[in-house]
Every structure is written in structure tokens, then in C-alpha cells.
Amino acid sequence: MSPPPPPSLSKPNPNSLSDFIFSAFSLFVFYSSSSPKPTTNLNPHRRFFKFPIMPLTTTTKTPAINHNHHHFASPQSLSEWLRPRLPSDSFAAWGTRPGTKNVHNLWLELSEGETSLADSTPPVRTVEVVVVRVRDHQNRILIESHQQLSNGDVRNRSRPLSEKMKPGETVEAAVVRAVKEELGSIIRVSCSHVSDDDIVKIIPNSYSSKVEERVSVSYPGLPACYVLHTVDAFVDGLPDCEFCTEEEEEYHNLDENQEAERAISCKKHYWKWVDSYTLSS
């Protein structure tokens, strides 16, 4: 019986060739994905822990939006830009409906870099906010119950101390500034010889952040994206009961003093302590 003929070398089996190519490609992908990635060097001597950067995300797919950083020469030019982009009845309520602000307020926010507007219809206002959950040793949290505005309106709040952040401002610096601006009038009475760093003590590992999207209460009809940076802190010199504070002029250092005078500002803050378990996290 003659032996079987040797396999042909001139025409390889097509199945074997495809298996070989697949195996080679799989090995390439494996070694590529398992290669080490570069790491970021963190400064171990930083006084506070490093705050993560929160991306602005939405639940639905939207086209790319150009965030508008051009400067409006005046509140009038901003008003002309906004008018065709917002519902007419909503825009007319700015500064006239109780608890709302006017176009002068928004123009000042843009001038200070506290707010950006997306060039869309309607525009989207993006604001970074620091939220300070001021605690005491009875496990209570300080809540701003309501505000008295410069036009005589009273605006309900029912939320912890919060403040718009300045461009390039760290969370730690924003916390100290927020406490100084909104609680400073009463702290100065009892802590006149104590530095700000000693008055405000951020609780370690209390930082959290989230993004909220909703229609602005201050500017009806204008969608807003709030990037919230929240910390817990102890603040010395606060009364143990309900109290009221007065805030300095928010834009007193701005050259456009006439526009600041036309804006609606907060004159008084009313505060009370509540049990921490009554607040949602």
C-alpha cells in the first residue's frame, strides 16, 4: 500500500490562512491594550485634597454648542441678543416677576466671568457654584430660609450657603469668600481679631460634585447648567439661633457702577439651623 501524497506547498488551505491572520491580529490587540499608560503626577504637598474636574454631561445627545465668550458692550446689546432667542413672555418677566433678576444682573455676571452663555436657541447659562454646608456640633446644618432683595421682594431659598464661583477660583478660596460675603456681617462682631483661615474649617473628605440642569428661577425661560461643588465646613462666630446678615454690594469693585445700581441685589439673608437628617444628600 503506497503512502499518502505529501501536502501541497503551492496552495495553502484558505481556512488555515485566515486562522493564522486572526491569531496574529488578536495577539497585537492584546499586547497593545496591556501596555502601561502614562500617569499624572499629583502634588503630595497640596494643603487640601485635589478636587476632580466635573465634565458637563447631558442625558440626551445634542449638537456641539459653541459657548459664547464674546463681550456684550452693554445690557442693551445683551437684551437685543437674547430677545429673539427666548420666549417673549418669559423674557418680559425678568425683574418684574417677584424673586427674579433683570438683564443688568446677567450682564454683570458675564462681565465678571461668573456665567457663560451657549450660542443656541434658547441659550444655556452655565454657572459653577460652591455650596457650603455649614455644620455645628449639634449635627445641624445652616440653611438660608429667605432673602430680602433691593426692590423689596422676598425670595424663598431653603438651601445651604451657596455662591457663584469666579474664573480660576479654587473651591477652597470660593468657600472662604462665600462665608465672608454672606455671613461676614455677623462674624465680624464676634471674631474681629481672628483670620479667615481660622474662622472657616473645611471638613476633610466632605467634597462632592454634581451637575444639575434646570430652568433658572432668576431668569425665567433661560435653561441653566449648574456645576455644584459641595463641602461641609465649621464656621466660628455664628449665633446658635435664627439670625439675619447683610451683604456688601456684590459688584462694588466693578467700573460699571451705574449698571450695578440697576441690577437687583440681595440686601439681607435670613438663616436658621435645621437637623441634618431633614436634608436630602
From TrEMBL:
| InterPro entries, per database record | NUDIX_hydrolase-like_dom_sf
Q: In its UniProt entry, what is this protein called?
A: Nudix hydrolase domain-containing protein
